[in-house]
Every structure is written in C-alpha cells, then in structure tokens.
Amino acid sequence: MGVRAKIEQSASNCPPTMDKGDVNAALLWDWFVKCENYLHHKNMALADMVKMVTHSMGGVHAIRWLAACGPSLHKMDWDAYKGQMRSIFLPVDWEYTTRMSILRMKQGSRPFIDYALDVMGKNNLLARTDSFMNDEFIHDAIEASMEADLAVECHRENTNNVVAFKAWMDEVKRLDEKRRQHFEEIAKEFARLSMKPSAGGGSGTNRAPLKTYAATKPSNAASNSSSSTFVPIPKLLDKECKLLQNNGGCFKCHRFWTNHIGPRCPNPPIDGATY
Predict the structure, then answer these.
(1) Is residue 161 part of a domain?
(2) Fewer CB within 10 A of the terminal residue: the chain, N end or C end?
(3) Is 201 a member of any domain?
C-alpha cells in the first residue's frame, strides 16, 4: 500500500486541494464535502462546480483523467463527477465491502450514540449508490448489533413501537444513558463502602470479623494436631443489602444479576480472610 493522499484547506474561503496518493471511500467523501462547503461559501453556480474543483486535484491518475476528458469534464454535473471519481479511484467492489463492513460493526462497550453515529457515518460513504441503506435498513443494522443487555432493555420498553428512526434513536440513547448512569452509581457506592472505616479502624476491606470458627482435626498427640480457620465476613449493611436486592444479587456470593438466591447459590461461602 502506498502513501495515502491528503486533503488540505487553509481556510473556509480557500479551495481545498488533494495531493497525490492513494484514495479510499472515506477520503473521497471528505473531498466531496469540503468542495461542496467551499462552493456554497463562494455562492457558486452548480455549473461551475466541477470546473473549479478539478484544478485542485493532484496525482498521476487525476492528471491523466483530466487530460483524457478535456472540455467534456467541465460540462459534467456534480453527481456525475462524483460517480466518475469513485469509478476511477475506488476498487470495483468498494460498495459491497463498505456495506459488509457496516453490517459487521458492533456496539461493544462504547455508548450507543457513538456506535450509531459511526454506523450512519460509514453509510454516508454509500450516498447516491444502490448500496446506500435507508432509515429502515440502517435501523435494523444498528439494532441487530447493539449491546446485548441494552437490546433486552429496549425490548422491555417496547422501543420498536417508535416508528420514526430519529425518535427511536433518541429513545434508545435515553435508555442507554440511564443504564450507564445506574452502573456508575453502583460502582461509586461500592467504592465508597469499601473505603468506609470499620469499628476497629482501617478501611472497609479490612473490617474486623464478627466471629471466628475453628475446626480442629482430631489427634491423639498435640504435636500432630492441625487446624483450619474460616473467617466469616461482617454482616451486610442496610445499604449493601438494598444494593443487592435492586440488582438481582445473591446474598451468599454477593454477585449481581445471578439466576440464584442465597440458599440455592452454587458458589462456596465467602471467606473473610481473603474477602
């Protein structure tokens, strides 16, 4: 792969320039947008758009193209110019590969709105092509790859009843932000509780145990005896109990969003010595 072409524009009232180098769909999109903004700023007629921007293009392919087309290029309308640019500079299957890359995008751990805007931005690269996804298709693509827990929350809130795409985006964004704020509050609360001093001093992670149970292995001689000690954790505070209750927690293993409750917990009791 060679050097990527660069687009430069010193000011909004100056024409953008494209130097020589490799061109991809994203760079072409940036070129089209900058050219359109400049021409709009200069209040130029559509008939003069192509003639103006072609003089700002560099690179071997562009120069040969300009020389081959000659006067006919300057008579080309803006949409035809963009189609010619894509045809010359991009691979034959660029529409297919761009569309497939959109369908493979995942939300992951990032906020919903960041993910959705990335999908929509990449879809804009396909503008005025047969592969461009309308609101209905882009809605399905975004929904199919959103974070699993957020998808469940959207199902519970019946967001699919929201028909307009923009309104649906706003509603999912609201649910995602509410959910993320809730998780942040949980994390802050646990951090606060872990730093709370115990009755014996020190941080919450070193609270003095309430009781110590010792189980001594029977032996005929004291010299051969051994013992093992289990240290129970301190009793949960009211706020800790409420936190577990509100988030599907288990009172035995202290884990959130479990499918079991204390008596049915498959995990071993928490040892206060290592808690």
Answers:
(1) yes
(2) N
(3) no
List Cα–Cα distances, 23 to 10, 97, 185, 230, 241, in angstroms.
21, 15, 46, 67, 59
**CB of 3 within 8 A of CB of 14?**
no
* C-alpha 173, offset from chain centre: 12
Q: Is the pLDDT of residue 1 over 90?
A: no
User: Distance of CA 209 to CAs 196, 206, 214, 231, 270, Å?
Assistant: 15, 9, 13, 7, 12
H/E stretch holding 198: none
Domain-embedded: residue 217:
yes
> By three-state DSSP, how is residue 46 classified?
helix
pLDDT at 206: 43
pLDDT in tens, 68-105: 676 677 678 888 888 888 988 899 999 999 999 999 99
Residue 57, domain extent: 7-90
Output the average pLDDT for the chain: 79
